[in-house]
Design brief:
18% of the residues lie in helices and 55% in strands. It is α+β, with helices and mostly antiparallel strands and 144 residues long. Strands 1-2-3-4-5-6-7-8 form an eight-stranded antiparallel beta barrel. It is globular and about 35 Å long.
């Protein structure tokens, strides 16, 4: 009886571990494709405007890019790295080279269906410049 109970418990642990592993492996696939929305940076500074974020599977994991169309008509882009999705919360770093000192934007927000709404912290040369918010939705033509 004890041996049966022990084997049952080991089996449940193996099943739970396998299920967790498959969910983690599939979770980043949800991000693949193009997402559009808006961002509001600190005091209206970068990255404020309409944004398009594109996630792609690279050889060393997920990578991405971001294009910002500022309210004044200017457009600039950056790279997205250190992308993770844990417990359905996106974390990433966007880097914008807008002059001598690149802006680093640490992003975090929960994935709810096909939308992500969250916050970000903008810094340059290791100093925090402020916080902002963003909201993006997966574009209909993007992979599922």
């Amino acid at each position: 009886m004890r041996r049966s109970l022990w084997l049952l418990m080991v089996g449940l642990v193996v099943i739970a571990t396998t299920a967790t592993g498959s969910v983690a492996a599939e979770s980043t696939k949800i991000l693949l494709g193009s997402w559009s929305g808006k961002a509001t940076g600190p005091q209206g500074g970068p990255p404020t405007g309409n944004i398009v974020v594109t996630f792609a599977q690279g050889t060393s994991g997920l990578s991405g890019s971001i294009v910002v169309k500022a309210p004044g008509g200017g457009q600039y882009s950056g790279q997205v790295s250190k992308i993770s999705l844990k417990n359905r919360v996106l974390s990433a770093t966007a880097t914008f080279k807008l002059g001598e000192n690149p802006l680093e934007v640490l992003v975090s927000g929960p994935l709810k269906g096909k939308t992500i709404q969250g916050t970000f912290v903008v810094s340059a040369k290791g100093q925090t410049l402020g916080e902002g918010t963003f909201s993006i939705a997966k574009d209909p033509a993007s992979p599922k």
